[in-house]
Amino acid sequence: MQLKGGESRLDPLIRKNPFPFYRALREKDPVYYDPGLDLYLVTRYDDAMTVLRDPITYSQEHGYQDRYANGHVEELAEIMNRDGGGFIRDIIACDPPEHTRLRRLLENAFTAHRVKTLEPDIRRIVIDLIEPLTERGSCDAMKDISAPMTARIICEQLGFDFDEVGTEKIASWTTALLAQIGRMQTREEMLENAREMCDLQNYIIPRIREREASPREDMISDLVHARLDDEERPRLSFEEQVSCVRALLIAGNDTTAAALTNLMLVLATDPELLDHLYANVDDDRLISRFVEEVLRLQPPVHGLYRTAMQDVELGGTRIPAMSQICIMFASANDDNERFEDPRCLRLDRSNAGKHLTFGAGIHLCIGASLARMEIKVAAQEIIRRMDNIRLAVPLEELDYLPTLATQTLERLPLTFTRRG
Fold this sequence. Notes:
Layout: H1 12-16, H2 19-28, E1 31-34, E2 39-42, H3 45-52, E3 58-59, H4 60-65, H5 73-83, H6 98-106, H7 112-136, E4 138-140, H8 141-158, H9 162-165, H10 167-182, H11 187-213, H12 219-224, H13 238-269, H14 271-279, H15 284-297, E5 303-308, E6 312-314, E7 317-319, E8 324-328, H16 329-332, H17 368-385, E9 386-391, E10 413-418
Parallel strand pairs: 2-8
Antiparallel strand pairs: 1-2, 3-5, 4-10, 5-8, 6-7, 9-10
Helix pairs in contact: 5-11, 7-8, 7-17, 8-13, 10-11, 10-13, 11-13, 13-17, 15-17
């Protein structure tokens, strides 16, 4: 791609296939001011790491909050306070020292023991979803596998009744919340999203109150009753509890579903790779390497935001204080200075795990180990049960949701046969 000046990640053609755009920026303008988004895109791996390792100069809290709701925050807050139990910020995106306290409290819900004990239940959920589909011979991978799988898993973890909530409601809640940081919603869309956010909080709040009185074996109980020793505020406040449960519901659902759908797109478009995986499906190490390469190659989150708290030079570009930047994880993962032949999926890549799909530094995704395990289990069961996986539509007909933060396929029609 040749840069002519004035290009924006908002462009529908760039949004559909942003990698040539990222490559051009890395070569010519690695910290690029995007006029359509009014922020700087950080596209090289080393520059991304500079930002991720310096949470003081590059504030995540300001990066999320300064342009939250895309200019409609006051009206959104009024609606939430009136109809949704309160306007509660995404406190999980805070800066140190508050971040340190919240991170320690959240870790109670993501111990290695808890993640490991979830694997049999996750495998059961995946098999229950895939088995009926194998007789049909076709499906929409996002609608029929990824979205219901991750929705059911996060509901079970949190202690929600999946049959009561359902995939569509979780999808609506997810879309509404992501729109507040996606920087593309109109006022009309904000009003619809606000209704969904009120519905979500009106569902969460009574369940938090229930766990306060009667703890269960679920993540909400872990969060509500988590305590730190020798702290001025040893427990999460009510607002912090709501914000954390809301964040876990969305983060544990949308990005993992997007990642799994991207993995199935890779399976459907690379028959040689698929044959190799059929022959080695019981090799846990190889399947794990495959998952890591897909996470690097097609990350579900393409970029997240920071605010420069002072004048700073990055990648040869002078960034004024209080400017917004977007760390382009997908571009960093595609940087040939870090990953040889980056657009090629290589199962023998020695540094595949160095990708930035889950971030780095103090804001490394707290649920990364759980997401990896979910995707690996799903990949194994899909490969074991579905043969001849192919796209049911031309590749160019696939579309992504209109948001900068994530790269989520709207649908992924597949055909296949039952594997013996």
